[in-house]
Amino acid sequence: MTKIALDLTGLFSDSHTFFPKENESLKALWLDGNSLNTLPNGLTTLKGLTHLSCYHNQLKELPDWLWTMKSLTHLNISANALENLSFRIGELSKLEILDIQHNQFSHMPDEVGALSSLKFLYLAGNKFKDLPNSLNALGDLAYLNISQNVFERLPSCLRGLCALEELRCYHNHITALGDEIGGLVTLCELHAYDNQMAWISPEIGNLKGLQKLILDKNKLQTLPQEMGKLARLKVLSLRQNKLTSLPESLGHATSLEEIDLRENDLCTLPESLRMLPHLTKLDVRLNKRLSPPFWFEELRQKGCRIYT
What is the pTM of this model? Predict the structure, then answer.
């Protein structure tokens, strides 16, 4: 049977239009940008649909029949006016990608934890303060975006996300990278800029696979010595914090290629940085009390760009 994808972005205006009865050929349907207030009932005939995107409409609620579409693997309902997510979301057991960004959600039903095939979960731009512990059962989840919400701490369910590779939690009110972070041993990227972080748990040293750490626009004054255990870290960005010093152990993070320290209150830098073999960029601009150390010239001769 031929698989069909239908893109009606910006073209679909009649919410009562129906699709051919028992249509199993249509696998992907995009209804983005159509100003829909409701989803057309005719979608119930699309028994084989795996991809449904309703991005950027005017949906305020979702029909109960949506949860009977058991073949769905990709569901995008982002950029609408939705406030409530039904507990029946857990019935879509084949979901691999769930995008509910930029709505008005404040509560996540426990049943999301039943989506055992879920790999990508997009929650940015809502009103979440916490997530249920049931999410720690999402053993295949590789990507989680909880940015632009109202979190004051990282949700404790993170501890169980044993396959998570990328976490985005920027633009919240998070005050610390707590011990929860230590369980994310597969994490490759952490984007946590624009929060209220004043403390990082030593548990961060467990993130042996971390390659990119973005902590700009926080309130950090110090970093834990365990930062030196991040053997695969390539990019470290700490711009616009309140750092007065850096741990000498940072020189043991020997994969570092780029370090951004702009707009802090540093007086000195650990001399161990001169030994980083792969460092190509070091930015220390707008640290008014910092005098460039003698070994900057040594780094420049090795090909490192240094901005002072």
Answer: 0.94
